[in-house]
Specification:
Number of domains: 1
Shape: globular
Order of helices and strands: HEEHEHEEHEEHEEHHEHE
Structural class: alpha+beta
Helix content: 10-25%
Distance between the termini: 31 Å
Strand content: 15-25%
Largest sheet: 3 strands, mixed
CATH architecture: 2-Layer Sandwich
Oligomer: single chain
Strand order of the largest sheet: 10-3-11
CATH class: Alpha Beta
């Protein structure tokens, strides 16, 4: 059975789980509004992505994490239950002992498992490759969190205050990196993490259109060796890495 077929069967089975007397997930899914559709500004000719050069990423640096938290109104000092859209992961190659510091966030897959398993259509992929969660449709079942092989999604446990107008969030919803979609839809050309990394002089994060052969990210991908996290899953991630 194909991966998509397996996940579809799994989701169908889980959709019958009883939430409360007389209420099942499958009934909520049928009654829910149609899944959010790509916005008018999301062109299928574009594939937004990110290139992370781990050879330029210092182990103790958290500029990208701080910028993401500030931009999106996240807790500046994440607790075990608070949301974190980007995190630094320290990895070490056993054979050589070479260590790398790797920023990990939603990988914005071409074939996103989170979308496959979502019973309400709250998890969706835009025409330009950005994977998002519609908080108005999300029922907090967290199937997408279990399906994500990158542990890139968070669940909002607490009531929120002082939210950013451009980044609406809500208790009981799942959320993750949006590639700063609020910026992109305004015509801006970079994400908060890439901007902060560049301003700090690191240059470890490049954001851009993977479909544009003349973009910096496309040129860099052609010039250096890159890889996808868990490339064996064949998810077609929009985030590429160099140096791991």
């Amino acid at each position: 059975m194909s991966r998509r077929g397996f996940l579809g069967v799994a989701a169908a089975g889980l959709a019958g789980v009883m939430l409360a007397p007389g209420i099942r997930l499958i009934e909520i899914a049928q009654a829910a509004p149609a899944a959010a559709t790509p916005t008018a500004g999301a062109s299928p000719r574009v594939r937004w992505g990110m290139l992370i050069d781990t050879t330029k990423c210092a182990s103790g640096c958290t500029d990208c994490v701080t910028a993401c938290n500030t931009e999106n109104g996240l807790d500046p000092k994440p607790s075990p239950t608070s949301s974190q859209w980007i995190r630094k992961v320290e990895i070490k190659e056993i054979k050589t002992g070479r260590a790398s510091s790797v920023p990990v966030m939603c990988q914005h897959c071409a074939e996103p498992p989170c979308v496959d398993v979502c019973p309400t259509g709250a998890s969706f992929k835009r025409a330009d490759g950005i994977v998002l969660v519609d908080r108005h449709t999300c029922i907090g079942c967290r199937y997408c969190m279990m399906a994500c092989p990158y542990k890139a999604r968070s669940f909002v446990h607490e009531e929120l205050s002082d939210q950013k107008p451009d980044v609406p969030r809500g208790k009981g919803c799942v959320e993750s990196c949006t590639l700063c979609v609020h910026r992109i839809d305004k015509g801006e050309k970079t994400t908060a993490c890439a901007e902060a990394c560049s301003k700090a002089g690191h240059g470890a994060i490049v954001f851009g259109d993977l479909n544009d052969p003349d973009s910096e990210i496309s040129r860099r991908v052609r010039e250096i060796q890159t890889t996808q996290l868990r490339a064996d899953l064949k998810l077609g991630t929009g985030v590429r890495y160099h140096g791991i």
